[in-house]
Amino acid sequence: MNEISILMHMLSNKNNLYVIGATKSEIFHTLNVKTKNKSGHFHYLIINLSKYIEPLGLQIRYNPINSHWFISYDSEVSDLISANPFENKPRLAATLFCTIVCCLKNPDGISKITEIQTIRKKKGVIEDLRELEQKGYLKFDRNLNHINLTPLIGYQLDLERLFVKLALKIKQ
Fold this sequence. Notes:
By secondary structure, the protein is of the alpha+beta class. The protein folds into 2 domains: 3-76, no CATH class; 90-156, Winged helix-like DNA-binding domain superfamily/Winged helix DNA-binding domain (Arc Repressor Mutant, subunit A, Orthogonal Bundle). The chain is 53% helix and 16% strand. The longest helix is centred in the N-terminal third of the chain and has 16 residues, at 38-53.
């Protein structure tokens, strides 16, 4: 097997329910890359693989929540195909967005219910958080009143593009 086929396998491998792909260090270890220019070699491989799979409607993406690189459908194609995961429940989408904001602004990635309630401006977010936990988007520790995101969000939502679009809207 050459490096590209090994990389393709690693980036499409589903490790468990919430983890797809591989981290940069896992890729270095598997490919046995020990040179000083590891980062340059990594980018070379990613760019070449990206060009190779682009005609298939696939792209290489990065999940910032768990630092994994993975292969996904091109967003233009998947937007047409994918169904609404919230089944016409905009309150879940709003609560999830507020949770993402709260978790990403805290250095440890953990938010409290009161923070989410403040941003959401609703007191009854606990039911929404339970539903989001059942869907696998977050983990809810009822004893400590802590909420943290699962990596699943980073695979289904391009967080970087979302925040860039929000920043551009705020500028207008």
